[in-house]
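thought: fold this chain, then report.
action: predict
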Amino acid sequence: MGESLLPKRFYRSRTQCMIAGVCGGIAEFFHLDPTWIRLLFVLALFFGGSSILVYGVLWFIVPKHPDVLRIAKSDQ
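observation:
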């Protein structure tokens, strides 16, 4: 009960973004605070340096969350 019939999708966030919305999108997907995800990316940068590469790849591959208002207006 209460589950959506639509599959859960991973998007870059339009509301919780500082650079590209990747960390905000991850946070929205897992129902977490975006600050924790950003801290994990920064810590990964200091302890391995691959977080910049991962962030860049996600920025390029993951689509921006669709603007629901714009879609609803175009359907009318």
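thought: worth noting. The chain has one domain: 22-75.
final: tokens above.
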